[in-house]
Amino acid sequence: MPAASVPAPTAPHSAAPATLVTNIGSLATNDPALGEGPLGLLADAAVVLDGDRVAWVGRAADAPAADAVHDAGGRAAVPGFVDSHSHLVFAGDRTEEFRARMSGRPYAAGGIRTTVAATRAAGDEQLHATVARHTAEALRQGTTVLETKSGYGLTVEDEARSLRVAAAHTDEVTYLGAHVVPPEYEDDPAGYVDLVTGPMLDACAPHARWVDVFCERGAFDGDQARAVLTAGAARGLVPRVHANQLHHGPGVQLAVELEAASADHCTHLTDADVDALANSRTVATLLPGAEFSTRSPYPDARRLLDAGATVALSTDCNPGSSYTSSMAFCIALAVREMRMTPDEALWSATAGGAAALRRTDVGRITPGARADLVLLDAPSHVHLAYRPGVPLVHGVWRAGRPV
Ligand SMILES: [Zn+2]
């Protein structure tokens, strides 16, 4: 065999030494084969992180040797949170809008335009700094995978720029040119859809994995949303939909019909919507930070779960309607306000988010998974809901590296 055809030796995935994290009081693996219940819970557990992967999971007493040992001190460990829905490429401040809303004014989709004006006026460095600051803030709180979107540019140049900025900080980037019709197209929404599905898509598709649309009164109707999603899909982008947030509407049915990865919000659902989600691959992603921040009724997670739908929890972090980056806060809301059990809420914030991003390498602590692990200053993951607002994250590893 000529030397040129001999395969090169496999490079190690990382120079990081193998680390044994041991004396974990309670470990949620999200693998029922590894432990008890859907969370695959293991007591007195240990995990070996090798390079960027999980190499071993089991009882601490059975753990193999490693280069380094980290004593978890009996704390609980959970997979890194997977936040599958955020809007971090923005500029400007909407504190006063929040203050006014909390003084009685209802939330309407048009508030997005305030952020659009500020984002267009911002320099690239400012946008990078904003995304970097929020992703770091999320990571410190245990979020190891974060999706983020464009949608505050709404011109060809500003949407493409938003996606380039997003892609510098995360792999999960979504083209949301169809967030709202910008003021300059107010009298010609069809012309704006032509832009979103034409020149804007051409400029944006290379920088994104997903295509999204805000299917809502005051934003885009069912036909417009279908045009946006099918055009994106034809360019290789996988659909996800802002669906049924403020009213009943066609968003969920469209998401299921187009095999979207996720229908996000799902606050106002008919029985047919619930049925459609339960019988599809489309994940129902619930964003209770939005209902909290707009004093709106919460989605009925119990109804979706009892029907058999896959449910994810995300922050919807954005400056207008849900300015939180805390997945722990969303878990607490889901348990208190949406009738999810603490176990279901943790699953949805980790494995559920991974499903909404069609990822199998994250959202679980199993051999071969990416080494994303969060240690809690608590004996159990239940404390995420039991102790709302308390900063319980003690330590985070992302891709095998301590944060
Ligand atoms: Zn959103």
From TrEMBL:
Location of the Amidohydrolase-related domain: 263-381
UniProt keyword terms in alphabetical order: Cytoplasm, Histidine metabolism, Hydrolase, Iron, Metal-binding, Zinc
Record localization: Cytoplasm
Position of the signal peptide: none
Pathway assigned in UniProt: Amino-acid degradation; L-histidine degradation into L-glutamate; N-formimidoyl-L-glutamate from L-histidine: step 3/3
Cofactor comment: Binds 1 zinc or iron ion per subunit.
Residues the entry annotates as binding Zn(2+): 85, 87, 242, 316
Required cofactor names: Zn(2+); Fe(3+)
Pfam families per UniProt: Amidohydro_1
Claim: Cytoplasm is one of the keywords in the record: yes
Catalytic activity, reaction form: 4-imidazolone-5-propanoate + H2O = N-formimidoyl-L-glutamate
Binding-site positions, Fe(3+): 85, 87, 242, 316
Binding site for N-formimidoyl-L-glutamate: 152, 318, 320
EC category name: hydrolase
Enzyme Commission number(s) of this protein: 3.5.2.7
Sequence positions that bind 4-imidazolone-5-propanoate: 94, 152, 179, 245, 321
Superkingdom: Bacteria
HAMAP family referenced in this protein's UniProt entry, alphabetically: HutI (MF_00372)
Homology family: Belongs to the metallo-dependent hydrolases superfamily. HutI family.
Function: Catalyzes the hydrolytic cleavage of the carbon-nitrogen bond in imidazolone-5-propanoate to yield N-formimidoyl-L-glutamate. It is the third step in the universal histidine degradation pathway.
Name of this chain's protein: Imidazolonepropionase
